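Subject: for your reference before the review

Hello V.,

The reviewers asked for a structural picture of the protein, and I figured it would be easier to keep everything in one thread rather than splitting it across files. Below is the amino acid sequence we used in the manuscript, unchanged from the supplementary table.
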Amino acid sequence: MNYKLKDLPASERPRERMLELGAKNLTNSELLAIILKTGTHNKSVKDIALDITKEYKDIDSLKDASVSKLMKIKGIGKVKATSLLAAVELGRRIFVENKTKEKIVLKDAKSIWQNCKYLFEGKKQECFYCLYFNNKQELIERKLLFMGTINRSVVHPREIFKEAYLLSATSIVCLHNHPSGDVNPSIEDKKFTQSLIEIGKIQGIPVVDHIIMGEDGYYSFYENINIL
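And here is what came back from the structure prediction:
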């Protein structure tokens, strides 16, 4: 027999529990139930939320969910799927912005890789980020400038340096991933890095490194300067 949340005692309803105990004290399924809002005519929102936690046992894996995958769970249509993914994306943006606002000093490729590799987790296409630093080598901001296809990213230097001027940055580090997992640079990577270094010298905003990011390691052009 299915039940509705309004039929439950107030102490067992997710919204009421959140108001009383705070969001941090709710289970994942209770938080999901609040986001989903309602169930269906034959399934309560609490049961739908439980089914989501069964399908995504590691709640972190929700960041890789898609509308089509979520809709395979009984009781979830396009509206509920998009609402849930919107909440996941908002949380991700808050996390990224908080990271950016910290006064972080990143002085070498390894520390940059450790600090920023989460940006590329689960990405199936190339993403190109720039890190902008002040004269104390403190991180001002991370910027996702381009997303390419699975094997190519089209990047224009104009956009890279425009952001540097807007942020009053004094140096730049470029980051991108190879979806194949191989962090070794391609011929195109080498040519592009060399051109950025030359433009940076002319603009007075040096590109101090270009790092190819991987889950288990990285490739730093600065650490392999003789390759250029």
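For the response letter, the relevant points are probably these. The first helix runs from residue 14 to 21. The beta strands are 127-133, 139-147, 171-177, 207-213, 218-220.

Happy to draft the paragraph if you're swamped.

O.
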